[in-house]
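User: I've been trying to design a sequence by hand for this structure and keep getting stuck. Would you show me what you'd pick, starting by listing the structure so we're on the same page?

Assistant: Good idea, let's start from the same input. This is the structure you sent:
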């Protein structure tokens, strides 16, 4: 397979209904790579968590801001960046701790960043209070061999 490269960028209003849109966009982008069901589910879950964080935490569910998502395919490497211009994160290290949530009244589990870390190969978070947050995630897709078998690592 030749080194495929593709990029898609989308902006959408920070409303919870658009979390499904983000998942569908990423799934459609990945189809040429023929990901496994598990790979697709992992990436869609990580995207859901990043987008939901932007909506709930970045914009406090006010639907006043826009969420930006960029999905890039470079061969088998998938890079997804989800960003907002919301309230930002004061303490990124604390926010990334399992079970930490800034919205306990919403019964949030505090596992969003943990899921992103578990399902993707890399995760980086940049944020500044009052300026917004940028979440960047990557994952390598394991392409099947021409005979349909998944190559061994």
């Amino acid at each position: 397979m030749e080194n495929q490269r593709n990029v898609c960028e989308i902006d959408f209003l920070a409303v919870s209904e658009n979390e499904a849109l983000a998942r569908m966009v990423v799934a459609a982008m990945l189809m040429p790579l023929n990901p496994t069901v598990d790979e697709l589910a992992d990436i869609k879950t990580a995207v859901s968590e990043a987008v939901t964080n932007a909506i709930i935490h970045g914009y406090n569910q006010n639907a006043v801001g826009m969420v930006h998502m960029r999905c890039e395919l470079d061969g088998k490497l998938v890079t997804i960046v989800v960003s907002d211009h919301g309230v930002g994160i004061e303490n990124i290290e604390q926010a990334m701790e399992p079970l930490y949530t800034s919205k306990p009244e919403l019964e949030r589990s505090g596992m969003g960043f943990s899921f992103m870390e578990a399902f993707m190969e890399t995760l980086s978070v940049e944020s500044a209070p009052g300026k917004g947050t940028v979440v960047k995630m990557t994952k390598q897709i394991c392409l099947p061999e021409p005979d349909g078998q998944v190559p061994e690592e």
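That's my pick for every position. To get oriented when you compare it with your attempt: The mean pLDDT is 85. The beta strands are 5-13, 66-74, 77-84, 122-128, 132-140.
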